[in-house]
Specification:
mainly alpha, ABC transporter involved in vitamin B12 uptake, BtuC, two-stranded antiparallel sheet, 13 helices, 4 strands
Length: about 325
């Protein structure tokens, strides 16, 4: 009987895999090319540095949001968690407490609030959308009560360095954002927790059957999301030298947009931080380009929303469902 030879492995990526791996890169490069042609100021060093600096806040928040969405959840509270965390930290500094105490207090607040989200979802079985929507309202209300609606300004110079400092010609916020992305990549790719998060999002039943502690992992990913929100808020407040009670409004939608445009599935279990980084840069580059082209702020959100929707629609149409 003639033996059956195994089929030779194909060297050509199928269409779905090709688009997933390179579609966002091509979209980003196309946007950069278009803006370069439309505005002579776009490719200047000062403007590109500004793009990177502006992308840092959403980038850090989006790292935590990526973990949540990969696990099959959603976090609508990051903007309000950011606000309450940084107003507590800024208030402590304004009262004369050292930066080394105030900053950890702000990060602990964000982590604690995120963990409460996780407990409500994992233990109380409240859907993520409802639980985090509730936290969005509660944390914002507490922020307004804590600050009495007044901004906190005049923060220590040592603290402001994390938002305005430069190391080797690179803004400190950019370096910090790259560090957060690197830490997130190590967590997702090189630890058992990363594999567990992917399996949770892809197949919660299978994750439970193989012994993954779903409740503890849910609390962990939401706690990390709260931590990232607080960290991003500290960078923003350090740059502005002001903690406004309305700070962070709408940040949850920017983070979700960056994550989803970056290729992470809303269903969970598919995606990664590389796509989130590109998604963040694409959105901020688009914002910058609209400003350079003097597009009215009244139309800016409309244009951004349409571009994001078209990008997702194109990705959906050209990517056949996995077999």
């Amino acid at each position: 009987m003639a033996s059956v030879q195994p089929a030779a492995p194909t060297l050509i990526l199928d269409r779905r895999t090709f688009i997933q791996r390179f579609g966002l890169v091509f979209s980003f490069l196309l946007l950069v090319l278009a803006l370069s042609l439309l505005s002579e100021r776009f490719l200047t060093v000062s403007n590109l540095t500004n793009v990177l600096r502006q992308a840092t806040i959403n980038g850090i928040v989006s790292v935590g949001m990526t973990l949540v969405i990969l696990s099959g959840g959603i976090d609508l509270s990051v903007g309000s968690v950011l606000a309450l965390s940084v107003t507590i930290g800024a208030s402590l500094m304004k009262q004369g407490q050292p930066v080394v105490l105030a900053v950890p207090a702000a990060l602990a607040t964000g982590t604690f609030l995120g963990a409460i989200n996780g407990v409500m979802i994992a233990r109380a079985k409240i859907p993520p959308f409802i639980a985090t929507l509730g936290m969005l309202t509660v944390a914002r209300g507490l922020t307004l009560m804590y600050t009495q609606g007044q901004p906190i300004t005049g923060l220590p110079a040592g603290f402001r360095w994390i938002g305005t400092g430069v190391v080797g010609g690179i803004p400190v916020p950019v370096l910090l954002t790259l560090l957060v992305f690197a830490a997130g990549w190590v967590f997702l790719s090189l630890t058992k927790y990363g594999a567990q998060i992917y399996l949770m999002g892809d197949n919660p039943t299978a994750a439970r059957l193989v012994g993954i502690p779903l409740e503890r992992m849910t609390v962990l990913v939401y706690a990390l999301s709260g931590f990232c929100a607080a960290l991003a808020g500290l960078v923003l407040v350090a740059r502005l030298d002001s903690a406004q009670p309305i700070i962070g409004q709408g940040y949850e939608f920017n983070a979700i947009a960056a994550v989803v445009v970056g290729g992470t599935s809303f269903a969970g279990g598919e995606g990664g931080l590389g796509g989130t980084l590109l998604g963040t840069l694409l959105i901020e580059t688009l914002n910058n380009g609209l400003n350079l082209l003097n597009v009215s702020p009244l139309w800016e959100q409309v244009v951004k929303g349409v571009v994001i929707a078209l990008a997702l629609l194109l990705y959906r149409v050209l990517s056949p469902p996995a077999r």
